Hints:
By secondary structure, the protein is an alpha/beta fold. The protein is built from 6 helices and 9 strands; from the N terminus they run αββαβαβαββαβαββ. The strands form 2 sheets. It has a 7-stranded mixed β-sheet with strand order 5-4-3-6-7-9-8. A hairpin with a 3-residue loop joins β8 and β9. The model has no long low-confidence stretch (mean pLDDT 87).
Amino acid sequence: MIDWRRKLTTARERFHSHGLRGLMSHYADRLYSLTRKKKEDAKWLVHKERVDRLFDHKYDIDTRGITQLAELQISGRNRLHGIAHIASDPDEFSEALASLQIKHEDFVFIDLGSGKGRALLLALHFPFRRIIGVEFALELHRIAQANLIRVAAAGTDVDRIGLVHADATEFELPPEPSVIYLYNPFNDLVMSAVIESVLRSHREHPRPIRIIYANPFLEKLWVERGFVVLKRGNTFSLLCPPVMG
């Protein structure tokens, strides 16, 4: 709910400190910023719809759209803390994966918040040892299962992919070298718990771990816990755990 009383008080204070011209200039700037954001959002939606259509048509699957989580069946206690499901952009995914300087055959790829499974299918283009998708919304998990069946029926080998219906904070990371992929799936509360889970797993089983964090709005949380930023791309950050003393 909008607190109009507070907004009016703020406007009065700005009027007294900056005058009418300053007040009008402030709201003109705000209006311009909001208008520009709406235009950018509309442009992004047009681009996303085109990418979704082309990708799903190519594989005859369903990974499109923006899925709100409020009405879905959620595994675990973090129903209120997930972000709406949006599938990864293939070009952005490729750019992020290209930043890895690893021997893929030695690594497991883990998508925390894997949704309908697009990133898992994109990861098939790389020779990862295994590919794991962890999703806490049952409906999205089932769509991912259906997508894998359709892709397999069309001749693609999906045996390396495993789907797990679970809360990411309760998922036990495999004790193998891992690439953990995150497409802005959680708010700060869940992200903090995931960070602690990664740190705990790394302490118990020291090994190479790389975090690909797409749309890294909460990168600061990782850095504050000692993770090192190896690279920042246009839409992602590549991180690794702190060096163990």
